[in-house]
Amino acid sequence: MTYDIAIIGGGIGGLCLAQGLRRAGRTVTVYERDRTPADRLQGYRVHIDPQGARALHDCLPPRLWRAFLDTTGRGGQDFGFLTERLELLTLLETRPAADPADDHHSVSRITLRQVLLSGLEDTVRFGSTFERYERRPDGRTELFFADGSSATADVVVAADGGNSRVRRQYLPHAERVDTGITTVAGKFPLTAETRRLVSPRLTAGPNSVIPPAGMGMFCAPHDVDGRTPVAGIGVTEQAGALMDNTAGYVLWAVGAAEGRFPSDVSDMTGEQLKATVARMIRSWHPDLRELVARSDPESVSLLPIRTSVPIEPWQPTAVTLIGDAIHSMTPMRGIGANIALRDARLLSGALTSGLDPITAISRYEAEMRRYGFAAVRDSLQAAHQFVGGNRLARTGFKTFLRATRRFPSLKARAFA
Q: CA 393, CA 314: separation in Å to the nearest integer?
């Protein structure tokens, strides 16, 4: 059974789905509001876990899977929990998998987008800002765009992010709310000189820094030393430290509960954000302060933390949703991109299984709601733990982490 598929949005999930459908020989068009591939780039790293890696492996043609592997960064997989004085509370050790499709990877969002766009030149229609849709008497869906153009499709997939216009029309009761948590992120450049300025633990792998209460810090290295671009993948013409995907760095992010940042934080420049964070962590270990001090202000950004509110199942139709369009989540568990990739793999398989579209979408949505909304809840809980305002609870958590370091069997059970 063949039918036309329209994907609204050319982010990670939408492009992965398009790759999977194209690989299976299906007719698909991606409608992306950006005018060019270089518009609205996101300059930080993203962690690809085994679920995300398996989705990329299965949806990408072999040459692009190879290009993905050849342009990922290095940074280690062992996850550290540290105090703000750099005391190691515990270390979660992860052995590399035998198959890269079952492993963890660090990749620049810019580079991943380049991989996912490769080969889709005749599939992605840039400059197509979706406005609304209408169901036609023949069962097809007509799409209307801001420039006055329109298109029709048998199946419509909303992949247009947390502010999805498709979701707003299709599931208007599906809310996305502010968590009250604010995060500022930046890039500490990784060079031979800067590596000597900070503790080896900060450049060896990802870490969660747990200060007394009300705040949290995450940092993770993305080392591309020795990597070379692959047919234009892994390099960008965008200027500035934020959009440079050719140099290594440690990504850091400092988050705080409502009221901790100044009230005018949303109006601050990168230089002002950097100075604000420096003041907030002035009593922390000098190496953590160094991560912020050495960051180019151009790489420092404000990241408000929002989340979807899970909803009850809806009746399946020829319109469906993937990624942040339906289950936007906080970044505190680092799984949002991976859940979107999992959606893409699952929906691609459903739509190419030979089932009629509604049955295929029904099966996809039942599974997607199960793991997607569970991830939303887990990520929201992780966000509250990240800034944990209760001093007693935070002290207890640190005591527990120290115990797992002393008793490996407890660590194995706790973090299984």
A: 38
pLDDT in tens, 207-226: 999 998 789 999 999 988 76
- Inter-CA distances, 26 with 2, 20, 156, 319, 322, Å: 7, 9, 14, 17, 18
Scored b (16 or more CB within 10 A) or e, 339-363 reads: bbbbbbbbbbbbbbeeeebeebbbb
Average pLDDT value for residue range 177-187: 94
* pLDDT higher than 90, residue 318: yes
In angstroms, how far is CA 357 from the centroid of its own chain?
28
Taking alpha carbons only, the member of 232, 202, 228, 382 closest to residue 294 is 202
Token output for 373: 């909304």
pLDDT band at 234 (very low <50, low <70, confident <90, very high): low
For 126-147, how does the pLDDT look when each residue is reduced to its tens digit (9 = 90+)? Answer: 999 999 999 999 999 999 999 9
Rounded to 5°, the CA angle 36-41-47 comes to 135
Mutual orientation of helices 357-387 and 336-351 as an angle, nearest 10°? 170
Here the tokens at position 116 are 């996912």
- Residue 137 corresponds to which tokens in the numbers above? 């008497």
| Measured distance CA(255)–CA(389) in Å, rounded | 12
In the block, which residue shows the tokens 């100075």?
275
